[in-house]
């Protein structure tokens, strides 16, 4: 086990701003392309920690992540669950393994925060943040 490095404000602010930017950009992609694209991104992210310092254990996560990403082709909540699984793997690497970016010791923590924030968006169905009108069922309820 190695000693995790100290975190400062930028280690929290940077990933949070990046997550907001990610959600804004993805909100511009129409469905179902948004869901399909993000399932592919999730599958790709499953391999970023190979040779991350945990030996053969590194091979288990891409298998689980790939299966969840495949299910994400039809379900935003599966994509959200996949990003939460990735965030858990980020925590393991922050505490015990190598950082995701060797030149930035806190990068695994940043990835943990980013992944957790975007997972929340996916778990809510990944709605476009640019849609200003309420959903159809809400409009109907107000009219009654």
Beta-sheet strand percentage?
under 5%
SSE order: HHHHHH
Question: Per the principal axes of the C-alpha atoms, what is the gross shape?
Answer: flat
Our measurement of the CA-to-CA distance between the termini, rounded to an integer number of angstroms, reads 61 Å
Q: How many E-type strands?
A: 0
Sheet bearing the most strands, described? none
Helix content: 55-70%
What does the radius of gyration come to? 17 Å
Number of discrete domains? 1
Overall SS class = mainly alpha
The whole-number mean of residue pLDDT values reads: 85
**Total of DSSP H or I helical runs spanning 4+ residues:** 6
What can you tell me about this protein's structure?
- The chain has 144 residues and is mainly alpha-helical.
- The chain has one domain.
- The chain is 62% helix and 0% strand.
- It is built from 6 helices and no strands.
- It has helices at 9-27, 33-45, 60-72, 76-95, 107-123, 136-143.
- Helix 2 packs antiparallel against helix 3 (60-72), helix 3 runs antiparallel to helix 4 (76-95) and helix 4 (76-95) packs antiparallel against helix 5 (107-123).
- The longest helix has 20 residues, at 76-95.
- The protein is flat.
- It starts with 8 loop residues before the first helix and ends with a helix.
């Amino acid at each position: 086990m190695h000693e995790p490095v100290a975190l400062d404000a930028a280690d929290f602010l940077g990933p949070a701003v990046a997550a907001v930017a990610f959600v804004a950009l993805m909100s511009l992609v129409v469905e179902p392309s948004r869901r399909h694209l993000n399932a592919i991104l999730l599958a790709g992210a499953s391999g970023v920690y190979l040779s991350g310092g945990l030996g053969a254990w590194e091979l288990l996560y891409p298998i689980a992540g790939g299966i969840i990403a495949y299910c994400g082709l039809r379900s935003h909540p599966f994509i959200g669950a996949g990003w939460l699984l990735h965030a858990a793997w980020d925590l393991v690497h922050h505490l015990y393994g190598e950082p995701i970016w060797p030149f930035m010791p806190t990068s695994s923590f940043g990835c943990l925060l980013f992944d957790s924030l975007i997972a929340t968006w996916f778990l809510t169905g990944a709605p476009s943040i640019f849609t200003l009108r309420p959903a159809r069922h809400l409009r109907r309820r107000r009219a009654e």
